[in-house]
Amino acid sequence: MNALEEMIRRRIVQDGPMSVSEFMALALGHPQHGYYMKQDPFGTGGDFTTAPEISQMFGEMIGAWIADAWMKCGSPERFILLECGPGRGTLMADILRAAKGAPGFHDAADVHLMETSPVLREKQKETLSGHAALWHETLDSVPDDAPLFVIGNEFFDALPVQQFVYQSGRWYERRIGLESDALSFVACDAPAPEMAGLPAPQDGDIYEHSPLSRSIMNALSGRIARHGGAMLFIDYGYDHDAYGDTLQAVKAHQFAPVLDDIGDCDLTVHVDFAALQRAASDAGLSCYGPVGQGDFLRALGIDVRAHMLQQKASEAQQKGIQDALERLTSHDAMGQLFRVFAACGSGVSLEGFA
Ligand code: SAH
User: Fold this and answer.
1) What pLDDT is stored for residue 41 in this prediction?
2) Can you tell me which atom of ligand 1 is nearest the CA of 41?
3) 235-239-241 Cα angle (round to 5)
4) Is 138 left (phi over 0), alpha (psi -120 to 50) or beta?
5) Which residues does a 6 A CB cutoff place in the pocket of ligand 1?
6) Distance 78 CA to ligand 1 centre (A)
7) pTM over 0.90
8) Pocket test residue of 21, 30, 36, 159 for ligand 1, highest count of atoms within 8 A of CB
9) How many whole angstroms separate alpha carbon 297 and alpha carbon 291?
10) Distance, CA 18 to ligand 1 centroid (Å)?
11) Which of ligand 1's atoms lies nearest the C-alpha of 88?
12) Where are the alpha helices (DSSP H) in the chain?
């Protein structure tokens, strides 16, 4: 048993069963033992590989998308370019390189990164060493006085959710307790949140609710509604309101039991895009998608970009580019499972959602 599990057990003994959201927040974000706080988990030697780490083409397409959105908003001469949960900083580096093609973009962009992990923040500083950028733990310190263009890849899936389970005609909160000295899920009396747009529940249905995702989405949407700009979020998740337990643990590219090796596995949930969309449209934004990542990247011209890169490449590199293209876009890889959602102030029409 590791130190974080011991701490969680002590808390449960003291205070009773722990909500799934508190468990996730500790497993991922505990200052000493949290998964993201102590290591760089990405890549083949790590636990999982994300789209920007697969190929530069991903960030280049997004860079072109942001530059286009910025121009459609009238090329404001100063704007906030914010990335949420930037990992190794690869996506932002590729975006900034690709956006050099848009005259004035670099001079106008104030680059901000919202990141809780000190280890990853250091990594991002290395990756972005040629650029002026500022780091933030939360949105509160990010300036709120200019148009906001915000992106996030696999950001919302790392934010804690509460779970509720429907049993014998009513909702209980699903928490983590101790049964015969083992950590296990238990149903507890607790008020359930409002559930919009869902069918009548059946016994055993689980509802996930992420107060942190909601509040971040509300805040970002409010800023874009006031100052202009756009947002783009890519993640795996579901487009319509649905029930289900989506909490999963991954270690060394394999699924792992959620309650084992706490703080040493990545924990994620599927993103509730319907909830994100509601927050954006409640703030008055126009919403786009979710569409599959494959369709989005193809609409932005990733096939042409791959072809261009292949022309200057060795045979082995050409194959690498082709493999990366397949992984990012094909239906049996990331192309369909990963969803792209965007929103912007009214009167602007965003690319990639044909
Ligand atoms: N976007 C990157 C990393 C995805 S992993 C990529 O695609 O490779 C999730 C990222 O979100 C990590 O950088 C993690 O440290 C960060 N993160 C997790 N919770 C966060 C929070 N509450 N606020 C800001 N960043 C957070």
Assistant:
1) 82
2) 5
3) 125
4) beta
5) 36, 42, 50, 52-53, 84-87, 91, 114-117, 120, 153-155, 158-159
6) 26
7) yes
8) 36
9) 10
10) 23
11) 8
12) 3-15, 20-29, 35-38, 51-54, 56-72, 90-98, 105-108, 118-127, 211-227, 273-282, 293-299, 302-311, 315-329
DSSP code, position 29: H
Pocket test for ligand 1, best of 119, 155, 233, 334 (most atoms within 8 A of CB): 155
Sign, Cα dihedral of 26, 117, 51, 71: positive
Cβ contacts of 20 within 8 Å, gap of 6 or more: 160, 161, 162, 163, 174, 175, 176, 247
**Cα(265)–Cα(251) distance, rounded to whole angstroms?**
5
- Please give the distance, rounded to the nearest whole angstrom, from the Cα atom of residue 225 to the centre of ligand 1: 24
Q: How confident is the model at residue 47 (pLDDT cuts 50, 70, 90)?
A: confident
Integer Cα distance of 221 and 199 in angstroms:
27
State residue 194's pLDDT score. 87
pLDDT, tens digit (0-9, with 9 covering 90-100), for 242-289? 999 999 999 988 999 999 999 999 999 999 999 999 999 999 999 999
**Residues above pLDDT 90, as percent of the chain:** 91
Percentage of the chain beyond pLDDT 70 is 100
Q: Of all atoms in ligand 1, which is nearest to the CA of residue 37?
A: 15
Q: How far, in Å, is the centroid of ligand 1 from the Cα of 250?
A: 15
Q: pLDDT band at 161, cuts 50/70/90?
A: very high
β-strand 229-238 against 206-209: which pairing, if any? Answer: unpaired
Query: CB neighbours (10 Å) of residue 212?
Result: 16
> Which letter, b or e, does each residue of 163-198 get, where b requires 16 or more Cβ atoms within 10 Å of its Cβ?
bbbbeeeebbbbbbbbeeeebebbbeeeebeeeeee
| Helix H or strand E segment including 289 | strand 286-292
**Ligand 1 mutation target, pool 50, 55, 88, 117, most atoms within 8 A of CB:** 117
